[in-house]
Specification:
By secondary structure, this protein is an all-alpha fold. Helix content is 54%, strand content 0%. It has one domain.
Length: 91
């Protein structure tokens, strides 16, 4: 995927786990559970984020590695916002 993005002229950079921990939790000592909880809090808490079967939230089907992908996405978007690229995004 890295090479494909570069071939298309898209900007590519690595995001290391430490950067994700700092961006999501504000601490380099965060673990998977605290990162997941911080993401749930970002979406309004567990009840609002996950919801129920009758009234599913936006993170209802997020499981396993999808939590890592979501954390990476939030970190990337926040770093772009800091750089002034995504001023309209509020994550």
């Amino acid at each position: 995927m890295w090479q494909a993005a570069e071939a298309l002229g898209l900007p590519v950079r690595r995001i290391f786990r430490r950067e994700v921990k700092l961006a999501i939790c504000g601490s380099p000592r965060a673990n998977d559970a605290t990162i997941r909880q911080a993401l749930l809090d970002l979406y309004g808490g567990k009840e609002a984020a996950v919801g129920t079967k009758a009234k599913p939230g936006p993170l209802r089907e997020v499981k396993g590695d999808a939590w890592s992908a979501l954390a990476l996405s939030v970190t990337a978007i926040r770093s772009l916002a800091v750089a002034g690229v995504g001023k309209d995004f509020n994550a």
